[in-house]
Design a protein that fits this description.
The complex is a heterotrimer.
Chain A (H helix, E strand, L loop, with lengths): L17 H35 L4 H24 L1 H10 L1 H10 L1 H23 L8 H28 L12 H5 L4 H26 L2 H7 L3 H28 L9 H26 L9 H54 L5
Chain B lengths: L12 H21 L1 H15 L2 H36 L1 H34 L7 H33 L1 H6 L3 H6 L3 H27 L4 H41 L6 H30 L10 H22 L2 E3 L3 E2 L8 H7 L7 E2 L4 H5 L7 H21 L12 H9 L6 H14 L10 H16 L7 H4 L2 E2 L3 H6 L3 H6 L1
Antiparallel strand pairs in B: 1-2, 3-4
Chain C lengths: L1 H9 L3 H17 L2 H30 L5 H27 L5 H25 L10
Classes of the chains: A mainly alpha, B mainly alpha, C mainly alpha.
């Protein structure tokens, strides 16, 4: 029996016009996810380069440079996430809280898990030189932090996916069953690839700003560092052209029409193609001209990300909107009955 | 509450929120709100005296604060949101409809605070001379101010939630600021945060000045004076708060404040505050007169006293709200006062979307010798009784864990069988005897079903799982149930 | 015995503080609240006057040249000691013999009377006493 629950909603009006709340939600969520990309990508790239650094010392120094950025990026990622959390609590109360309750144990474990990941990240960064003699342990700390950073997005994804499908709520028994719902895994891979990609662009920005002395300390030519950044931005994005469509076409069917969703994602793919071309060109450029298209690349990335954020929201609406109407109707009906009973009780003088 | 019911049967749902929230308060009071101004003062003093030892000490203490606030501090803050959404979604969902912009503003201030603490910590070594140093010191004081502002904002929201009248008439941040509990609470927390920071700083200073006895004594004395300045205000403001709360409570209960337990707790709060301040004063006194005699562990005593006091303070603050979770609007069980006439007439199960599946232990706990029909009927009643328990009681009570319903029943009725007649008679009138309990929201039939379930719990000692492990069963929509149609099935098809 | 008397004589207040602690213990064991009040207040008064007298002397010697910070360092330990020792007497009077609060009161009285005596001794050669070891 596949009953769809139609619960009562909070009978209070929204604190602001819906478009305003949606604006807050989508805009700040994108900001949040970019910094999360930088945090996770930073952690992965640091590990990779420290590993290479075992053979060539300058890669170790590069790893340290990248590790230094995680401190700020992680705190900003976390604090920016609160705004969208407030907005989603307000706009999608019934759906969000229901999904939270159904995956509750893992949902609340996000807190201790992130604390541990952050502590490990601090140990890794601040005891870098002290742990020179035990590199294997140092790498272990980085790996542990990285694994936690890789796991936590799954918790979020399982949740925000589950919230879209009320017909699945009765069949979920905790995190693992929510995780196996479509299409959590393609979305996860899509997110994972974005991490090194976004971090790559960040590194381009970083190494363009550094002074000559700082660059010399690392041991690479500036142009080489910038090219490394662009390569990290390029190749995962190439892979996205495989993973992206898979993610798109494995999105579960919704009751609302998916036409606008497809259009928006199509547009973002188009923008991404231009992005790819520019990235490819940049990786081929010599030291004198590398970085020339950085501004354009950033704008294109902004556009692509913005379009995807919009598409994501449209998909959410398509999935939830019909159910939302049912919930609204049920809530209105319930409130009418509450009023009726209250008046009846007051008339009989038995009001509480 | 029309959500799948998240439930922790051993630790208790309240315990989850309390642990995360109190940890958050301890970290943010002692290491952010109180500590940032102290560190800024130390940096300023070191710069004024051109004494690099003060600068070094200030940086070391800041660094420890930075590590803890950006990990445990930040995440427990978010943890409060996550845990409250799990434990009482109806209340937080309602509060956010009214207070969205207040929380949004507070969030913007938080973002500023995070950026400032990142900047302050990460530029310390770079902005170390001349004009840059002066800029850095100003940054420190700005950070201290913003940390305090976040506390001022959240205390307004908290205070509002305790004051019953405002929700109905004036649900705004301004009324949160003007309600009678606000200023006393802020006046209490501010010096408390400063004193806590002083205690932590004295403890850390003993570690960071190990090689230099003369400087250690000087630093301990100075930080002790900081603590000494704020400690008396903790007591004075604590007394102010203590004197204001009863009037608010009177509003809440609508009856005279006679509940023995509450007056006990208020008295205890004052005693604990007194003990805490005395312990702090003794520590400060020794730190000033004989700093070299101060063992490092000495600072644990005032710290433990403060933790005890905060725990008690927060507990009483939460208690003042009961039986409501939002004063006069919503009871702690998630039902609104307005819902009661309908629910007490038709029963809560008539409108509940979700049902909590019976566990194997519950199915096995049926009396012996029943034929199939009787068994089915008994199971159906047990299912309903369980749903009533989960929906109306589980937010505060567990089956067999902390604040367990079985513990209370054991205390009241001992080992005699807890028949429905015995328990429901009490539960029906409970809210008149224990004014912190909400009235039972269901109808008479459901009261009996609850009684049957409680009777069952006397012998079934297995913990009751929540929706996060056991899942849910979806009921048909009520109007359609009444009309005999199940529209949601039609949709599923 | 020699070691003990050497230790006691090393600093001017050690003998007096030891006496004060013994006095507190004695009064505590006797258990008469009125006795404790009379003798306790008298002891606090004597030690308190000694402290205040010397502190005023120091402040007078500075006559405006002293920083506020140093003045607080001068007065704070003694003032706290007076307040807390009197509070301890209050605690003893209000509680029954042998209860936890009573024992804490006796201990607090002893410690604070001791601190008051030390404060008075420190005030005599303030601020040199700040940099002295025990």
């Amino acid at each position: 029996m596949n009953r769809i629950p139609v619960p009562n909603d909070i009978p209070l009006p929204l604190p602001a016009p819906e478009p305003v709340l949606i604006g807050v939600l989508v805009f700040f969520f994108l900001l949040h996810i970019v910094f999360v990309n930088l945090m996770v990508g930073g952690s992965l790239l640091t590990f990779y380069y420290e590993l290479r650094g075992l053979k060539q010392k300058r890669y170790d120094r590069l790893a340290y440079e990248i590790a230094s950025t995680i401190t700020a990026n992680k705190s900003i990622a976390v604090v920016i996430g609160i705004g969208p959390l407030l907005a989603i609590n307000t706009l999608y109360t019934v759906w969000f809280y229901t999904a939270n309750a159904l995956t509750g144990a893992l949902w609340i474990s996000i807190i201790p898990l992130v604390v541990i990941a952050f502590v490990l990240t601090y140990i890794h960064k601040y005891l870098w030189h002290q742990m020179d003699g035990v590199k294997w342990l140092h790498l272990g700390v980085s790996a542990a932090a990285g694994l936690i950073f890789l796991f936590i997005p799954l918790i979020f994804l399982a949740n925000i996916n589950l919230m879209l499908f009320p017909d699945k709520w009765a069949s979920v028994h905790g995190f693992l069953s929510a995780l196996s719902l479509p299409n959590v895994f393609p979305r996860y891979i899509h997110f994972l690839l974005a991490c090194p990609a976004m971090t790559g662009l960040f590194l381009v920005w970083l190494f363009r700003r550094r002074t000559d002395a700082e660059i010399a300390d690392i041991g690479f030519a500036r142009a080489d560092l910038i090219r490394i950044g662009y390569q990290w931005a390029l190749w995962p994005t190439v892979a996205q052209f495989l993973v992206g469509p898979i993610t798109l076409f494995t999105l579960p069917q919704t009751q609302g029409s998916l036409g606008p969703v497809m259009a928006v994602f199509g547009a973002s793919a188009l923008v991404a193609i231009f992005l790819l071309i520019l990235l490819f060109q940049e990786t081929r450029r010599p030291a004198e001209t590398i970085g020339r298209s950085f501004g354009a690349i950033c704008l294109l990335m902004l556009a692509a990300v913005g379009l995807m954020g919009a598409g994501r929201h449209l998909y959410r609406e398509a999935a939830i909107a019909p159910h939302r109407e049912l919930v609204r109707a049920r809530t209105l009906d319930y409130m009418r009955q509450v009023e009726e009973a209250r008046r009846e009780a007051a008339a009989q003088g038995t009001a509480p | 509450m029309d959500f799948p019911i998240f439930h922790l049967d051993i630790f208790g749902n309240r315990g989850l929120v309390a642990t995360i929230a109190i940890l958050h308060v301890l970290v943010n009071h002692s290491l952010a709100v109180g500590m940032m101004p102290l560190v800024a003062c130390m940096e300023w003093y070191g710069h004024k005296r051109q004494d690099p030892r003060w600068d070094k000490l200030a940086y070391n203490i800041l660094f420890v604060a930075f590590l803890i606030t950006t990990t445990v501090g930040a995440m427990t803050g978010i943890g409060i949101w996550l845990s409250v959404s799990l434990v009482n979604p109806y209340s937080i969902g309602s509060l956010i409809r009214v207070f969205f912009w207040a929380w949004f503003t507070e969030w913007l201030v938080f973002v500023t605070e995070v950026c400032l603490i990142l900047a302050y910590t990460l530029t310390w070594k770079k902005w170390s001379e001349g004009k840059a140093k002066e800029r850095h010191i100003r940054l420190g004081f700005t950070l201290g101010f913003f940390s305090w502002v976040t506390m001022a904002l959240i205390v307004a929201i908290l205070g509002f939630m305790m004051d019953p009248g405002n929700w109905m008439s004036e649900p705004t941040l301004w009324s949160g600021i003007t309600n009678p509990i606000y200023l006393p609470q802020l006046a209490f927390r501010t010096p408390l945060a400063a004193a806590m920071a002083g205690i932590v700083a004295m403890f850390l200073a003993q570690f960071f000045t190990r090689g230099d006895a003369a400087f250690r004594n000087e630093a301990l004395r100075a930080i002790a004076l900081w603590t000494l300045f704020f400690a008396p205000f903790v007591l004075i403001a604590g007394f102010w708060y203590y004197s204001v709360v009863p009037d608010v409570m009177k509003e809440n209960f609508g009856v005279a404040i006679a509940t023995l337990q509450f007056t006990d707790w208020q008295q205890k709060f004052l005693e604990i505050a007194l003990v805490t301040v005395v312990v702090i004063l003794v520590a400060v006194q020794v730190a000033i007169a004989r700093p070299n005699l101060l063992p490092r562990v000495a600072m644990l005593a005032p710290l433990v006293a403060v933790i005890w006091m905060i725990g008690h303070f927060e507990r009483v603050r939460e208690f003042v709200r009961k039986p409501y979770v939002i004063g006069r609007y919503m009871y702690a069980n998630g039902f609104r006062v307005d819902d009661y006439p309908l629910l007490q007439r038709d029963g809560i199960l008539a409108y509940a979307t979700y049902s909590n599946p019976l566990t194997d232990a519950e199915r096995a706990g049926l009396p012996q010798g029943l034929d199939d029909d009787a068994r089915e009927a008994k199971l159906a009643r047990l299912q309903k009784g369980k749903d009533v328990f989960m929906i109306t009681c589980s937010r505060c009570h567990t089956g067999h864990g902390v604040n367990s319903i079985t513990g209370h029943l054991q205390r009241m009725f001992g080992d005699q069988p807890w028949t429905a007649d015995l328990t429901t008679g009490y539960i029906e009138g409970m809210h008149q005897v224990r004014s912190f309990m909400p009235p039972f929201p269901g109808d008479k039939k459901e009261l009996d079903l609850l009684g049957e379930y409680l009777e069952h719990l006397q012998n079934n000692l297995a913990p009751i799982p929540g929706a996060q492990t056991a899942g849910i069963i979806v009921q048909a929509a009520p109007a359609l149930r009444a009309a005999g149609i199940d529209q949601s099935e039609a949709i599923a098809r | 015995m020699n070691a003990l008397s050497t230790w006691l004589q090393a600093r001017p207040y050690r003998l007096t503080v030891s006496n004060a602690l013994l006095l507190a213990l004695l009064l505590g064991v006797i258990g008469s609240a009125p006795l404790f009040e009379i003798i306790g207040v008298a002891a606090v008064a004597i030690a308190g006057l000694a402290f205040v007298g010397r502190a005023v002397g120091v402040a007078f010697r500075w006559r405006g040249r002293g920083q506020f910070y140093d003045l607080v360092l001068l007065w704070a330990p003694g003032v706290i000691a007076i307040i807390l020792s009197l509070a301890a007497i209050g605690l003893i009077s209000a509680n029954s013999y042998g209860s936890v609060a009573y024992v804490i009161g006796v201990a607090l009285f002893g410690v604070e009377l001791g601190m008051l005596i030390i404060g008075g001794s420190d005030a005599a050669n303030f601020p040199a006493s700040l940099s002295e070891p025990v």
